[in-house]
């Protein structure tokens, strides 16, 4: 974008001890998700490693640079990197699923930071919006994956206090005949929380 060298720290191996209810892996490294998306220290272009390897044409560069102007004098942290990466993908009209995942990683990074609860819910609302859009755009290839995504949409609704919508999407996941067994198990558990109007955002 501007010739600045950007260095990525790539974790070659990491042990996972399970998943949280929002699909976040429980890793032995606290920096796992922080390392997935990075940004240029000069122009704040942000993305995955492969995003920095793409040769953008002049129209795409100009489009991206217009977006990056708003972050010129802003201190960019790991979460904002995720937001910027998502906004760039929106500008380039990339898959809604890819956009959702950038926002989702941002929600993982600030999990447990009580001061940023409102910001986290804003990101979760965007995750939900783009996952729903991805389903409408037929970006997923099989029903097993779609069942998992519907569960995750339900979880994003529950975590942001939209309990009726959450229950609806948990039911869609549960009623999908091609769902994975663990999806039904988790959807049943999380649906119980939604019925109790529990928006626990830490699990």
Structural domain count: 2
How far is the N terminus from the C terminus?
38 Å
Helix content: 40-55%
Count of helical stretches: 7
Q: What is the general shape? A: globular
Summarize the main sheet: 2 strands, antiparallel
Rounded to the nearest angstrom, the radius of gyration is 18 Å
Helix and strand pattern:
EEEEHHHHHHH
Structural class: mainly alpha
Mean pLDDT: 92
Strand content: 5-15%
Low-confidence spans: none
Total strands:
4
Q: Widest sheet: strand order?
A: 1-2
Descriptive account of the structure:
This protein has 203 residues and is mainly α. The chain folds into two domains: 1-139, no CATH class; 142-203. The chain has helices spanning 58-68, 78-91, 96-109, 117-136, 143-159, 163-174, 181-195; strands spanning 16-19, 25-27, 38-39, 46-47. Strand 3 (38-39) and strand 4 (46-47) form a beta hairpin. Helix 2 (78-91) runs antiparallel to helix 3 (96-109), helix 3 (96-109) packs antiparallel against helix 4 (117-136) and helix 5 packs parallel to helix 7. The chain starts with 15 loop residues before the first strand and ends in an 8-residue tail after the last helix.
């Amino acid at each position: 974008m501007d010739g600045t060298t950007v260095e990525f720290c790539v974790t070659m191996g990491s042990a996972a001890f399970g998943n949280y209810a929002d699909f976040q892996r429980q890793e032995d490294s606290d920096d796992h998700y922080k390392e997935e998306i990075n940004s240029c220290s000069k122009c704040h272009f942000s993305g995955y490693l492969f995003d920095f390897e793409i040769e953008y044409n002049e129209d795409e560069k100009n489009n991206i640079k217009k977006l990056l102007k708003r972050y010129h004098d802003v201190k960019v942290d790991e979460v904002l990197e995720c937001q910027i990466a998502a906004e760039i993908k929106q500008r380039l009209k990339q898959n809604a699923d890819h956009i959702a995942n950038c926002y989702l990683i941002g929600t993982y990074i600030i999990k447990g930071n009580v001061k940023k609860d409102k910001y986290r819910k804003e990101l979760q609302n965007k995750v939900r919006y783009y996952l729903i859009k991805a389903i409408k755009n037929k970006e997923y290839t099989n029903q097993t994956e779609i069942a998992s995504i519907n569960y995750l949409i339900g979880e994003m609704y529950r975590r942001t206090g939209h309990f009726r919508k959450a229950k609806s999407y948990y039911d869609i996941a549960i009623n999908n005949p091609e769902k994975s067994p663990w999806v039904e198990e988790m959807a049943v558990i999380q649906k119980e929380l939604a019925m109790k109007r529990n928006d626990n955002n830490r699990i």
